[in-house]
Amino acid sequence: MGLPMATNLQRHGLLHGVWNRSSEKSAAFAREYGCLHAQTPAVLAAECDAIVLCVSADADVMAVCRQIAGSVRDGALVIDCSTVAATTAREAAALLRKHAAGFLDCPVSGGTEGAIKGTLAIMAGGEESDFRRALPVLQAMGGKISHLGPSGAGQAAKATNQIMVAGINQAVTEAMAFAKSQGLPLEDLIELLGAGAAGCWFLDHRGPNMIKNEYPLGFKVELHQKDLAICRDMAASSGTKLPLVEMTMHHYRRLLNDGYRDEDISSLFRIKERMFSNGLEKDDER
Question: Catalytic residue positions?
Answer without folding.
Answer: 158
